[in-house]
Amino acid sequence: MAPALALDSQYNFQTPVTKVADDILGLHMSMFWICVAIFVAVFGVMFYSIWAHRKSKGAVAATFHESTAVEIAWTIIPVIILVVMAWPATKLVLAQKDTSAPDITIKATGYQWKWSYDYVQGEGQGISFYSTLSTPRAQIDRGEWKGDNYLLEVDNPVYVPVGKKVRVLLTAQDVIHAWWVPAFGVKQDAIPGVVRDTWFRAEKEGVYRGNCVELCGKDHGFMPIVVHVVSPEAYAAWVAGKMKPAAAPAVAAAS
User: Fold this and answer.
1) What are the phi and psi torsion angles at 150 (to 5°)?
2) Lesser CB count within 10 Å: N end or C end of the chain?
């Protein structure tokens, strides 16, 4: 898992709750320290050379011809560094794209400026609802106390069971939007006329929040995403509660 210091810092990623998000943070920190090491090595040699070979010490400019060994070294070493960096990055990208064998599939459609969700496969299939911002307008218009989740509250959050693979199909009705939940390591564009997909498997129960992160119009900042990750029992109860209103018209029509 990622270092606790990185997780608790307000300057780093949110605490990951999926393996992909944890791998993203781990890769990020690995690349960061590799870059730090290269920076220290290159600038360390440069500043030492400036100090040790300064004119006041009698140093004179070197005269030498090219060195084949040096040129081979400064070609091979960067290639090795790039391969070392690219190998885990490629594995992570492939893992991010592996949407096969989901337990639940949810279609998310972006609108100006809300989301609609349709459970199209797995437990909960047939559930559909819109999810819109629920932050009171008074907080937005009159600058009242904004609370901890200002502009990150919705009337109908998404519910998923903990430990299950959830595939999310993304599209849009009007302009390009993007579905982003940082704790899941998920960010995928929703494009009109195109269906793209992503996935996550949350390993910890909780409430996780995100946003539309593709500039989509004047209310772009009012398209939050809220996902409740709950126990299988709580999820089954939520599904049953959502199914009752849908079943009522059918029962009334049959009678």
Assistant:
1) -55, 130
2) C
Domain membership of residue 255 (yes or no) is: no
The Cα 252–Cα 255 span in angstroms is: 5
Secondary-structure breakdown of the chain: helix, strand, coil percentages, each rounded to the nearest 5? 40, 25, 35
Q: How far apart are CA 106 and CA 128, in angstroms?
A: 9
Residues 189 and 74 in one domain: no
Range(s) of the domain holding residue 92:
4-96
- Same domain? 10 vs 121: no
Element of type H or E holding 107: strand 104-111
Domain boundary among 96, 124, 148: 96
Residue 254 lies in a domain: no
Q: How many domains does the chain have?
A: 2
**Predicted TM-score (pTM) of this structure:** 0.81
Mean pLDDT by 10 residues, the chain (255 residues): 45 90 93 94 92 83 78 91 92 93 96 96 94 85 75 94 97 96 95 96 96 93 96 96 68 49
132 shares its domain with 226? yes
With b for 16 or more beta-carbon neighbours within 10 A and e for fewer, the 4-26 pattern comes to eebeeeeebbbbbbbebbbbbbb
* Stated length of the chain: 255
pLDDT at residue 162, as a whole number: 97
